[in-house]
Design a protein that fits this description.
Layout: H1 2-14, H2 16-44, H3 55-86, H4 130-141, E1 147-151, E2 158-165, E3 171-177, E4 181-182, H5 185-189, H6 197-206, H7 223-232
Antiparallel strand pairs: 1-2, 2-3, 3-4
Helix pairs in contact: 4-6
Length: 251
Amino acid sequence: MNLAEVVHASWSKRDKMNMSLLDAAYADACDNVQLEVDYKAFRDGVSCIGTGPSMLDKKRNATANQLKLAKTLGEELTREDITDKDRTVAPSESAVPFTTPHDRHNASVMSGPRKSSQARPGRYRTARSKHFNDRLEKAKQEKDSLKAEHVNKNSIHCGLSYTISTSQCKTYQVCIGTQHTCECPDFAKSRGKDLCKHIIWTLLYICKIPENNATLQQVSLTDDELQRIVANTPKEISNSFRWDGKNKKSL
């Protein structure tokens, strides 16, 4: 034992530099092993640096936030869908043309306990989409080129029917009702979820709805809204918008 201690002491003093290199190699090997472990954990999303959340926790939190935002948006859309059944109205609302049922500053809407019995086939549109604004501009640009002829085709869901003639001598049947319809390709492309320029043109220039009125952007109406439109639409189409039936070319 004593001899071994003497030999070790002599070797450690004689090869002190070699001992330092050996220690350095050992430390480097340990660092490499630890780095590999940390890198694997990072790739797997379970690494945790310091006291903060791990990558996996961050992903879970981001997913939870997205689900929360989606739930909030869904609740808002649902409220838009059912708001026509829950809104309160004044008894004289039916006598006021083109009022916005959700405008709480409107004199025709009161905060009393009375609820409307009217239901809308689709959701109430509080804002105008880019699609609507584009079609509105086209309808205004073609104000003088489109013409209309009244059609006696009234039904429960269609209060007013018109044949709209275009500058290309094409004609489309437009129905202004609780669910507006048009035979044009643009309306068919949207599957009835957005208005085409022919419907907007009819509402603007035939039914005389003001351009800034919220009724103009609605794809579907309540029975009361439709009755107000029918009541306020002139019986005769003005000469500037009347189609004489010539050059008819239906699709």
